[in-house]
Predict the structure.
Amino acid sequence: MTVLDARALNRATLARQLLLDRADLPALDAVAHLGGLQAQEPQEPFVGLWSRLRGFRPARLSDLLTGRSVVRTHLMRRTVHLLTADDALAWRARHDAMLRQRVLGTYRREFAGVDLDALAAAGREVMADGEPRSMGELARALADRWPEPGTRALGEMLVAALVPMVQLPPRGLWRTRAGVRNVPLAAWLGRAPAPLPDDGSDPVGQALVRRYLAAYGPAASADLRAWCGLAGLPAAVAALRGELVSFRDERGRELLDLPDAPRPDPGTPAPVRFLPAFDNAVLGYHDRGRIIDDAHRGLSVAGERVVLVDGRVAATWTVRAGTVAVAPLHRLTPHERTAVAEQGRELAAFLSDGETRSVSLAGA
């Protein structure tokens, strides 16, 4: 079985994630290809798409949100993701059990003895009036019937798990600060999430496997689980084995992939790319060694924005007074510093609508 080293996996990841070459794709198609974008920080998906798409304009993504073609909702790993409306409707039921278990993992004691199905029905009844509500407002509307969990736990269970919700614009629009107002996914889109089949088959699980490999492969089953949070996909993987190819990584793990998906030559040059906080190019794997050193792994879950140099996390970045400030994690060559500075200037121009191209790069 062919062994793929870290550099080969890195180049495959960059190609699948649209980070090796910026793609000429509509924003909606890019969101679909990526299986959604991590979006707990509302402005971060704009940078994620800017780094991946040629000529991306923020208004395009804002228009998709207001036009209801994409939605902000809790899904993979119980985190807020920006997903196409079609994917949110198709995938939500398959994630329901995981979402409940993840909330219970934090609040199991608070929900001891609570009938979650009854709580879900009550939550849907409250939201049936069409009024957007915050998590706290929905929880307080039901607190008299379920006082034990408390407002925070009750709100999280209802909004993140029991009642499929979307976060309404202006939350998530370009350069807009807005609190979270929730409405049911079905009410916002005019369509209910697709139910799971009664025959025990798992077409959604199989679709998730294919879509994950298209955007993240080659990858192990543990990587797939780390991306979506679902533990129950071995049957879906087994059902698809006949149409997949297998590799090994340097640790001996089996990696699965789509046969015709891009696996570039490991020597392919990789341009500098600026990634937003919590980008799934980093978070979407159990073994993140293909893109970030173990010594810096904590950055990926701490909300640090990172810079890829030669395809790997080599710096962090932030914006201070309109300046893109870059802090390298190790010494960069003069050529690398030049490339980082140039891409930083482009990012500054994007974030400021061309008003500034200011960048600072720490270190000698």
